[in-house]
Structures are given as structure tokens and as C-alpha cells.
From TrEMBL:
Top-rank taxon: Bacteria
Protein name: TRAP transporter small permease protein
Major location category of this protein: membrane
Family stated for the protein in its record: Belongs to the TRAP transporter small permease family.
Cell compartment(s), UniProt: Cell inner membrane
Phylogenetic classification of the source organism: Bacteria, Pseudomonadati, Pseudomonadota, Gammaproteobacteria, Vibrionales
Its biological purpose: Part of the tripartite ATP-independent periplasmic (TRAP) transport system.
Keywords, in A-Z order: Cell inner membrane, Cell membrane, Membrane, Transmembrane, Transmembrane helix, Transport
Pfam annotation, one family: DctQ
Description of how the protein assembles with itself and partners: The complex comprises the extracytoplasmic solute receptor protein and the two transmembrane proteins.
The species this protein was found in: Vibrio eleionomae
InterPro entries listed in its UniProt record: DctQ (IPR055348), TRAP_DctQ (IPR007387)
Residues covered by the Tripartite ATP-independent periplasmic transporters DctQ component domain: 30-151
Membrane-traversing stretches: 20-42, 54-73, 94-116, 136-157
């Protein structure tokens, strides 16, 4: 069981690294598209019609993927950060993060699907692409957050995972005191 927990946590960490790179790419892409729009507007008095919509799509994807990465690395906003040196409090926080995320996100994920299905017949005005591609960012981010929460439960079984979770908590604690 301990080996499975460590493998699943490793998988979660690998997915987090991919999501972090995609989020950075989306934010950088958004910045470049917005710069193109500004240059085209003020130099040529004719911005491309698709730039605003593409920038919005990139912002949504970048923000939601970034939120899942923040959850994985304990950089998400939370009410209580137990001291990093308190192992039992760290384990309680892992369980509470898991429970809270699943209680909040499972109903949201459930109601995402009818919304996504309604978007299948709609296309965006600027890009002429199905709006499902933008709206799919929410369930993708929720699934990632739920997976990271489940993987974090491995801290109850494995000292390796517990150490990694504690190091995230330590980083968060240091960031709050700066």
C-alpha cells in the first residue's frame, strides 16, 4: 500500500509539473497576444479581431491550471497553516484539505457536465471554435485538484510523502512570514 501511495504521489507530481508548464505557457501566450493587440491598435489602428478572445481563453486555462498547481504545492489560500515541525497537525491538515476539496469540488464537477454539453453547439465569435474548449478548463482543473488531494493522503502512509508535504508547508510558512 505504501508503494502504491508513493507511486500515485509521484504520478501526481509529474502531472503537476506538466500542468505548471502549460499554465506558464498559457500566461506567456496571453501576454504575447495582448502585446500584439496593443501594438496593432496603436501602430496600425486595426487590432486583429481574435486577440481579445484568445487572450481570455489563455487566461482562463492558465489561471485554472495554476490553481491546481497551487493546491498541489500548498500555495493555495487557506485559513490555517500548522507549523511545519508538527507532524500530527500536518497529517490533520492533509486529511482536512482532502475532505474540504472533495466536498466542494465533487458537486461542482457533477454540474460541469450539463454545462459542457450545452456548449457543444456554440462557437466563439472571434475564433470560430467550439466554446467547449474554453469551458473544459474547469473540469480539468477540478480533476487535477481532486487527484492531488487524493495523492496527498499518501502522507498518512508514507514518510517520504509526509516529508514532501511538510516541505511544501514549510515553504508556505516561510512565504507568509516574509
Amino acid at each position: 500500500m505504501k508503494t502504491f501511495a508513493e507511486q500515485f504521489y509521484g504520478f501526481s507530481s509529474a502531472i503537476n509539473r506538466i500542468a505548471l508548464k502549460l499554465a506558464a505557457f498559457c500566461i506567456l501566450g496571453m501576454l504575447l497576444v495582448m502585446m500584439l493587440q496593443v501594438v496593432a491598435r496603436y501602430l496600425f489602428s486595426s487590432p486583429p479581431f481574435w486577440t481579445e478572445e484568445l487572450a481570455r481563453w489563455l487566461m482562463v486555462w492558465g489561471g485554472l491550471l495554476g490553481a491546481s498547481c497551487a493546491f498541489h504545492q500548498h500555495a493555495d489560500p487557506s485559513m490555517v497553516h500548522p507549523p511545519a515541525d508538527s507532524a500530527i497537525r500536518q497529517k490533520i491538515q492533509v486529511v482536512m484539505r482532502f475532505v474540504a476539496s472533495w466536498v466542494f469540488f465533487v458537486p461542482v464537477l457533477y454540474y460541469c457536465w450539463p454545462f459542457i454539453l450545452r456548449q457543444l453547439s456554440r462557437t466563439s465569435d472571434g475564433l470560430h471554435v467550439s466554446t467547449v474548449w474554453m469551458n473544459a478548463a474547469l473540469p480539468v482543473a477540478i480533476i487535477l485538484i481532486l487527484m492531488h488531494g487524493l495523492a496527498g493522503l499518501g502522507a498518512l502512509l508514507s514518510p517520504t510523502i509526509s516529508e514532501q508535504e511538510s516541505s511544501y508547508a514549510q515553504q508556505t510558512e516561510e512565504n507568509l512570514t516574509e
